[in-house]
Structure formats: C-alpha cells, structure tokens
Design a protein that fits this description.
Blueprint: H1 2-5, E1 16-32, E2 35-48, E3 53-58, H2 68-76, H3 88-94, H4 99-116, H5 120-123, E4 132-133, E5 136-138, H6 143-152, E6 158-162, H7 168-178, E7 183-187, H8 197-206, E8 209-213, E9 233-235, E10 254-257, H9 259-262, H10 265-277, E11 281-284, H11 291-294, H12 297-301, E12 306-307, E13 325-326, E14 329-330
Helix pairs in contact: 2-4, 6-7
C-alpha cells in the first residue's frame, strides 16, 4: 500500500529528545470495572532536528505491566540511537509494542510531516481525512445514574457504557429506556462471569446493543468460540498488535485497535489492514488522554466500524490547539496539533 512505499522518517540527521510527564484532570471521575481515577497521567515525547519538532503522547497502562516511570525510562534509553537519526523501522526493533513506542512512533510521523511539508495522511497513502462519529463513554455506576448521564448526553448519537459489576442487565435496560434512539456499545473490561456471559449477551441483543467489548478475561476467553454471539464481540485486552490477531478469529467478531497497545500509528495501520483481510471488524479506541493522543488514531478511524476517541471529552481541560468535537463527531487535527 502507499504507506509502505512512503519515504521513511529520518535522513540520518541527529535528533534531540525531550520527555516529560503531564497530569490532566478528569471531569468528575472515570470509573470502569477495575476502579476509578480522577486524572490522566500521560507521557509526552518530542523529537527535534533543530528545525522541525514532532510530538507523540502515550498513556502507560498498569493492566499491561506498564508504568509512567517505566515508559519514560524506555524512551530515554533511545538517546544513543538519536545521533544517527531514528526511523520507524528501527524503532520497532528497539521497543516492544506498547505505550512508550507509541509516543515515539507518533512523534516520528509528526516530525516527518513537518520536515516534508506533507501531511501524515499523505505520507500514509490515505485519502483526505473526514470527520468520524465517535462514542461518548458513560462511566460505570448504578443503573439510574448511568441512565441519567445517558439522557444528559443525548446530543451524542453513539454512547459507550462501562459495565462489569452485578446488575449489568439492569444497566443496559435502564440506559436503553432513557435513550431509545441512541446507538449503544458496552465494555465489560474482562469482568463478566463465564456462567453469565450468554445471558448478558442475550440482554444486550434485546436492548439493541451493537457491540460488546471484552466480556471475559484475556487468556480465559476460549468460551467465546463456543457460545452464541447474540451481539458482535470485540477484543480489547486480548488484542495488542497484528501478531495476536489471527489467533482471536472464531472468538471475536471485532478488534479494538488502540495505539497505546499497538505501539503507535505504524502498527495500528498494519493491524487494521490485517483485520480487514481476516474479515474482522475494526473499532478504534483510546485511553483517557488529550487531543494529541487522539490525533494519529483519526487516520485509523477513517475506515473503522466503530470509533471511540472521546478521551479529551472526559477531561476538565484539553491542550491547545485541540481537536474539534461537534455533533458527536471528531474532526481531523490541524497541523499545529499533529501531522
């Protein structure tokens, strides 16, 4: 494809690296089955050749054995590579898929775009970007509270419900009653019991849920190959990069591609191509982070079946310049933000 033929970043020119940790307050509290948090802690990587600077943002995730300090250290260990420049091919041999590589990979895309005067979209061999309808996440709470929040979010045509505790059937029914015309997807974050997963999928079908994300723990999801998929089931924690995708066929109908899991835009685009080749639907997801983290994922969102890039909408404030969100859609980034 065009992106495989695109000129690679880096011309051997030495690069300088800046890494810093930022704290972004969340509006209220963000709650999933694993717990709650009140801020997004992100790692920002900047690469400069003295004229142009590229930026990338990541969110290390403890569920995958990552930490903020670990991500910073992993990025810092790249410094000896920078004297001769660094490109995305080389980066993939130096860091594993994950948050640290994501920040640097996206910074390299941004740097190449700014050096060349071409957009990252053009460099990737993609058609011009368009706005994409994105989900808005409703945190896990009591059924009535989630229903009220869904009603307050009626301007968003697509809502994502965080589930994963006793009473999930009531949560799905309450939200559907509150917003009868909304599109709904749900995310159990590995928390459904094996003896309840079939009945909960039945309730999901009855309430018009479009997609159920990661109902069972990764590594314990073989049951999904044996039960009836009343609703399409999407892999999240079970799917990280293109090397994990083929083994999920038969268990899952869709895959949630997150740049913090794939290790950046480069692998995310590769994984999306592979999913289509395997007839697996694509969801593009995110961690709670700023517009800078969402911007590269918009390239993958162009052909996705579901888009969940609402991270900045959950924050009390966003970085400037920011992405534009309107009418339930997220718009392509300006070059000043990324790419």
């Amino acid at each position: 494809m065009g992106r495989e033929r695109a000129e690679r970043d880096g011309d051997g020119k030495p690069l300088t690296l800046s890494v810093r940790v930022e704290h972004w307050p969340i509006r209220g509290q963000f709650t999933i089955a694993r717990g709650s948090k009140s801020e997004a802690v992100v790692v920002l990587a900047e690469l400069s050749d003295g004229t142009a600077t590229g930026r990338g943002e990541c969110v290390p995730y403890a569920r995958y054995g990552e930490s903020v300090d670990g991500a910073v250290s992993a990025i810092e260990r790249l410094r000896p590579e920078l004297d001769g420049g660094l490109d995305r091919d080389r980066l993939e041999t130096l860091l594993p898929a994950g948050a640290a590589r994501n920040a640097v990979d996206c910074a390299l895309w941004d740097l190449q775009a700014k050096r060349s005067g071409l957009s990252a979209t053009t460099l990737a061999g993609l058609a011009p970007l368009h706005a994409a309808q994105t989900a808005l996440t409703i945190s896990l709470d009591e059924p009535g509270v989630m229903a009220a929040k869904a009603r307050e979010s009626a301007t968003h045509p697509l809502l994502k419900l965080k589930l994963g505790r006793d009473g999930d059937a009531d949560r799905m029914r309450a939200v559907r009653d509150a917003v009868p015309g909304a599109r709904l997807i749900v995310d159990a974050n590995e928390a459904w019991r094996t003896d309840l997963v079939q009945s909960l999928l039945t309730v999901a079908a009855e309430t018009g849920i479009e997609l159920v994300e990661q109902p069972l723990p990764a590594g314990e999801d073989s049951l999904l190959a044996e039960i009836v998929h009343n609703v399409p089931i999407c892999a999240d924690e079970s799917a990280h990069d293109s090397t994990t995708l083929e083994q999920l066929v038969g268990r899952y109908d869709a895959v949630n591609i997150k740049l913090d899991k794939t290790g950046g835009l480069t692998e995310a685009l590769r994984m999306a191509d592979q999913a289509r080749a395997l007839d697996v639907k694509v969801m593009v997801g995110c961690m709670v982070a700023t517009s800078l983290a969402m911007a590269p994922a918009i390239l993958v969102a162009q052909t996705a079946d579901w888009v969940d890039l609402d991270g900045p909408l959950l924050l009390a404030r966003d970085r400037e310049p920011a992405l534009t969100y309107a009418g339930g859609e997220v718009y392509p980034p300006s070059p000043a933000l990324w790419g």
